[in-house]
């Protein structure tokens, strides 16, 4: 699993960015606008590091800060259309490369991989539930695939 995970996160080559930058963009694209403090906890970096990263994302047009309507002293960070496009381009490239790799597997390995997907989805759900600053992921309906 560790070898696959290491290879998987490096599959995409578009939009060469640090893993932390990509993590923040993926988090914002998936969860919506967040406070800096939430991003700091979610991505497990220091507050100054997150502030610098968000400043770079703003400079590059990938994220914007706006006042938090529930607390005028706080700001929310949201992904821009360009940031969402970068996330989607990375996801598409990674999916295309995984598909090409799966096409090279023999039928036995493809069948084994398909059979493991429910367990892998459950592990992803458990990991999301244990991550700081993230809501517990709902359990998918029995037999659901993604």
UniProtKB/TrEMBL annotation:
Gene3D superfamilies: Winged helix-like DNA-binding domain superfamily/Winged helix DNA-binding domain (1.10.10.10). Residues 1-122 form the HTH marR-type domain. InterPro entries: HTH-type_Bedaq_tolerance, HTH_MarR-typ, WH-like_DNA-bd_sf, WH_DNA-bd_sf. It holds the Pfam family MarR. This is MarR family transcriptional regulator. GO terms for molecular function: DNA-binding transcription factor activity.
């Amino acid at each position: 699993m560790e070898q696959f995970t290491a290879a998987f996160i490096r599959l995409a080559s578009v939009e060469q960015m640090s893993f932390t930058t990509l993590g923040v963009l993926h988090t914002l694209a998936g969860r919506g606008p967040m406070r800096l403090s939430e991003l700091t906890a979610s991505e497990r970096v220091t507050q100054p590091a997150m502030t610098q990263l968000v400043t770079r994302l703003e400079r590059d047009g990938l994220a914007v800060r706006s006042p938090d309507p529930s607390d005028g002293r706080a700001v929310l960070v949201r992904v821009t259309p360009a940031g969402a496009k970068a996330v989607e381009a990375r996801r598409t490239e990674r999916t295309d490369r995984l598909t090409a790799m799966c096409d090279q597997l023999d039928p036995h390995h493809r069948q084994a991989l398909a059979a493991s997907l429910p367990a892998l989805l459950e592990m992803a759900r458990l990991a999301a539930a244990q991550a700081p600053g993230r809501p517990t992921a709902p359990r998918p309906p029995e037999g659901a695939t993604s």
